[in-house]
């Protein structure tokens, strides 16, 4: 079972290794937009939207990796002072009854919008923008799936640790 967890971890690690470069590209493009606008008086709505697309891609596709490396937001009212065993049980509860159901619900309820967007190849957000809103909306199910896969990998490890205690 730990091999499955390692494979699921590997998926998020591989995606993070690729999309981390979007942060640098996003900063460079934004710098170019500012220089273009204020130095040369040139403006591009598509370039501005590209920053939005890159930010959304970075945020949505890196969420599973963020969960993997335990850098996600945690409300640790009880968690901080808990023993390792209690922390493990809180994590198991959180994954089974909060994270996985909420990701499944988001996936279920967003799918019609994503499907419809692909059916019409939904166009730009603004006139002159990037004609690929359908790709932007596709980040929602990708986000859900990557977070769910990572949650399953973490659950496998948590249950394995519970058995060894």
Automatic annotation (TrEMBL):
It is found in: Cell inner membrane. The chain crosses the membrane at residues 21-40, 52-69, 90-111. InterPro entries: DctQ, TRAP_DctQ. It is a multi-pass membrane protein. It comes from the Bacteria. Pfam families: DctQ (PF04290). Keywords: Cell inner membrane, Cell membrane, Membrane, Transmembrane, Transmembrane helix, Transport. Residues 26-160 form the Tripartite ATP-independent periplasmic transporters DctQ component domain. Part of the tripartite ATP-independent periplasmic (TRAP) transport system. The complex comprises the extracytoplasmic solute receptor protein and the two transmembrane proteins. Belongs to the TRAP transporter small permease family. PANTHER family: 2,3-DIKETO-L-GULONATE TRAP TRANSPORTER SMALL PERMEASE PROTEIN YIAM (PTHR35011), SLL1102 PROTEIN (PTHR35011:SF4). This is TRAP transporter small permease protein. It comes from Tritonibacter scottomollicae.
């Amino acid at each position: 079972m730990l091999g499955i967890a390692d494979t699921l971890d590997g998926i998020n690690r591989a995606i993070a290794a690729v999309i981390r470069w979007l942060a640098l590209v996003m900063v460079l493009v934004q710098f170019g937009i500012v220089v273009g606008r204020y130095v040369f008086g040139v403006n591009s709505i598509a370039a501005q939207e590209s920053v939005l697309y890159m930010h959304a891609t970075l945020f949505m596709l890196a969420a599973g990796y963020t969960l993997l490396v335990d850098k996600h937001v945690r409300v640790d009212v009880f968690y901080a002072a808990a023993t390792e065993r209690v922390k493990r049980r809180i994590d198991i509860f959180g994954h089974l009854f909060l994270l996985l159901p909420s990701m499944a619900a988001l996936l279920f309820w967003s799918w019609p919008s994503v499907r419809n967007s692909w059916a019409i190849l939904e166009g730009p957000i603004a006139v002159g923008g990037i004609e690929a809103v359908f790709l932007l909306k596709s980040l929602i199910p990708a986000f859900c799936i990557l977070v769910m896969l990572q949650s399953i990998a973490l659950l496998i490890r948590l249950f394995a640790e519970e058995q060894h205690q």
